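Reviewer 2 asked us to include a model.

Predict the structure of this chain.
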Amino acid sequence: MPESSLAAFREQPFELLRQMEQLAWRAAGAEGEGSGTSEWVGIGFRLGSDQYLAPREEVREVMTCPPTTTRIPGVKPWVAGLANVRGQLLTVVDLKSFLGGATTRPGRETRILVINHRELAAGLLVDEVLGFRRFDESAHTATTPALELRCERYLTGAFRQQDQLWPVFALTRLTENPVFLRAAEDA
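Predicted model (structure tokens):
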């Protein structure tokens, strides 16, 4: 549909938006078909000196650390506490500590990755979020770099970008781990 025909929808704003969306989808489809490659998008984050990727669809939200988290008695040391986020309670887990590393010290760059899970309201405390990272699917490899933390069971390969490997940390694997789901201290 040529742009001049969009003028016919000037008095119908919703129909105009629908037509514009269809044009955009057609244009995006034409570009994607010609290239023959697909793109993988993840959210880069840092734990200690290591950089990771979380699949974009497994992260609901990236947040700054709330000013206060309430400590929960009787839980494992890697549970940082509960935070009230827009009226909802969110369990905050120190991911580096859970993986056997040092406790994360909240600072200006510290963030929480809220896991996109229907039944689990949990956020992962990380040292820094590095933003969206885009990779060509063909850059994926099963090889992962040597890392400081014990997290091999959560990795699903890596993406190569120039001379750097970005390991993919599958949050779904983390949420299926019984140890992660049972945060209460053993009596």
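The helical segments are 13-35, 95-98, 171-175, 178-181. The domain at 39-181 is CATH 2.40.50.180 (OB fold (Dihydrolipoamide Acetyltransferase, E2P)). We have added this to the supplementary material.
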